[in-house]
């Protein structure tokens, strides 16, 4: 009987170890910094070409991707949670991303954040206010959907892409920095009037 008890304790201990290890495994992919507001991903430690960033780590929301966290990682695909509010300078630069869905809660994108990737389409989320210099420089964008909330678009932000036509919010006209769309084969830019909501 005593042997049975010892055996059962051993089995339960093994199960606890396995389950704990599985829960911890996603966290080990990332080096993080924890603040009062949430978690910042400071470094990607994995080797996979496809990465899913969790919405929560240690029961806190993941709100920021730090400078160079995923730079030069040969990434082909990344899935971002809607909890992320800030993507810092060089965060995903020098990869091979072809598709990207930006988080709905995203507020800012830093300089060079997605420099030198292979993105073909991009939709800017509704809360976004700032795009840094060279943020999407040297991709393969043929389609760009803008949002009216932007207050700053940096120099060369969308330079060296493949955009031929642009439809932009009217308020966007005074927020485009020098050379924002440099070296795109743009033939037409349309500024779309923003109608007030119906009451």
From TrEMBL:
Signal peptide span: none
Pfam families: LRR_5 (PF13306)
PANTHER family documented for this protein: IG-LIKE DOMAIN-CONTAINING PROTEIN, SURFACE ANTIGEN
Name under which the protein is recorded: Leucine-rich repeat domain-containing protein
Organism of provenance: Lysinibacillus alkalisoli
